[in-house]
Amino acid sequence: MPQKATFYHAGCAVCVDAEQRFAHALDPADYAVEIVHLGERPDRIAEAEAAGVQSVPALVMEGRPYHINFGASLADVKGAA
Amino acid sequence: MPQKATFYHAGCAVCVDAEQRFAHALDPADYAVEIVHLGERPDRIAEAEAAGVQSVPALVMEGRPYHINFGASLADVKGAA
Hints:
Two copies of one chain form a homodimer.
Chain A: E1 3-9, H1 13-23, E2 31-37, H2 45-50, E3 55-61, E4 64-73, H3 74-80
Parallel strand pairs in A: 1-2
Antiparallel strand pairs in A: 1-3, 3-4
């Protein structure tokens, strides 16, 4: 049964590129990826923060944050939300 | 036929974690991942640099660099190599 992975982004160019590259490249037999646009879902910023996400784009897998390149800080996303 | 992806690292803890997480999570139907330890293969640092790698761990997919969290700068790896 696939594990859950959550891809957090904010619609930025770096985010979109990372989403196309990673969120869809993970083995679907192993991972069920949920895509969350924090600009549209500010109610989920706290959850991302709790998982250790400091910037977007980021993937959270098994509770650990993996920041992929740098699009925007979570502080900027909060400021814009 | 799977595309080539190259995972560059330098043996650091962040690198090992990212390797276990990403290098083996990519769909093997889509990606053939080569793992390169730049500390052991300093002759491949120039190739990583040419692909835009600035720090490790990083994955290069279709010629584009994706830095995953931050383990060490390429400058540090060069200094240590």
